[in-house]
Amino acid sequence: MTTQTHNDDRPGEINARPVRHPWRFVAVAVILILVAMFVSSLLTNDRWNLEFVPNVMNFSPVLRGLVQGTIVCTIGAMVLGVTLGILLAVMRLSGNPVLRGVAFAYTWFFRAIPRLVLLVMLGVGAGFLYPKLDVGIPFAQQIFGIDTPLVFGSIDVNALSNGIAVGILGLGLSEAAYMAEIARAGILSVDKGQSEAAQALGMSNGKTMRRVVLPQAMRVIVPPTGNETIAMVKDTSLLVAVPVSNELWFQVTQVANNTGRIMPAYVAGFLWYLIICSILMVGQYFLERRFGRGYGTQTNSSRKLTMIGKGSA
């Protein structure tokens, strides 16, 4: 004879009610009102003059400033900044106290100087202090006791201090200080056992860094590097301090001043920045997906394989 036991302590059906969020509807209403007010301003205020915006975006000086002053300068500054930043990060993690000190002094100095101030110093101050830079043997007159210095050539600093090259140099040197900290954080995120295993296989320190550590550190390095690249696109507007005329915002401002149509010119520059940064954000998303494979949450296929493995076990 079987006896059936009932668990009287088991709770009954729970009739749960969702929590009400009335303030969400209030927030949505406020946002919709603000959007409607902005759209109404676009349609009713003739000073926007939006039909002139495509013309400004296609002006030859604006396109030239977009390519040379914004895109080229961003690429050049980021290449210089990333390369020098990785080198500084390796120096900061080196066992050599001289290399560590030099890397720390560099990051300290360039992180403390605003980029606008640095560009002014390179574009205006360098040409004022050294209008012509001689290339030769230093202190040759004092050492060899000759009357004329041993000079192999000279560089006209004033001719070089107001071009895109100085802008790339200034922004790149500043960016390297930030990229050094980003790269250092990425290198420190890799377990030390990876380096020890690579060295046990006979790899040198340089090869271990290139083939083992840096590929794994990219998962941590890529997201902030993408943010720095997007920020660099906007920081190219500071090239007016060099001064550089072939720059997007400078050309847009010139159009606004010459035509008197201020807002359509500014909106054209705003749209170009929005387009370039949006493209970079998409690229950053796919780079993060590529270097983040194997980390974080499992994909659906990996979950299926895990369940199959458990079932067969």
Query: How far is the N terminus from the C terminus?
Result: 38 Å
Low-confidence stretches: 298-313
**Radius of gyration (Å):** 29 Å
Largest sheet: 2 strands, antiparallel
- The run of helices and strands is HHHHHEHEHHHHHHH
Helix proportion range: over 70%
Characterize the overall form.
flat
Given the structure, what is the number of helices?
13
Q: How are the strands of the biggest sheet laid out side by side? A: 1-2
| Global mean pLDDT | 83
Query: Which class do the helix and strand fractions yield?
Result: mainly alpha
Number of strands: 2
The fraction of residues in strands falls at under 5%
Structure description:
It is a single chain. The longest helix is centred in the N-terminal third of the chain and has 33 residues, at 60-92. The chain is mostly helical and 313 residues long. It is 71% helix and 4% strand. It contains 13 helices and two strands, in the order αααααβαβααααααα. It starts with 21 loop residues before the first helix and ends with a helix.
Set down the secondary structure blueprint.
Layout: H1 22-44, H2 53-57, H3 60-92, H4 97-112, H5 115-129, E1 132-136, H6 140-144, E2 151-156, H7 157-160, H8 164-188, H9 192-200, H10 205-235, H11 248-259, H12 262-291, H13 300-312
Antiparallel strand pairs: 1-2
Helix pairs in contact: 3-4, 3-8, 3-10, 3-11, 4-8, 5-8, 8-10, 9-10, 10-12, 11-12
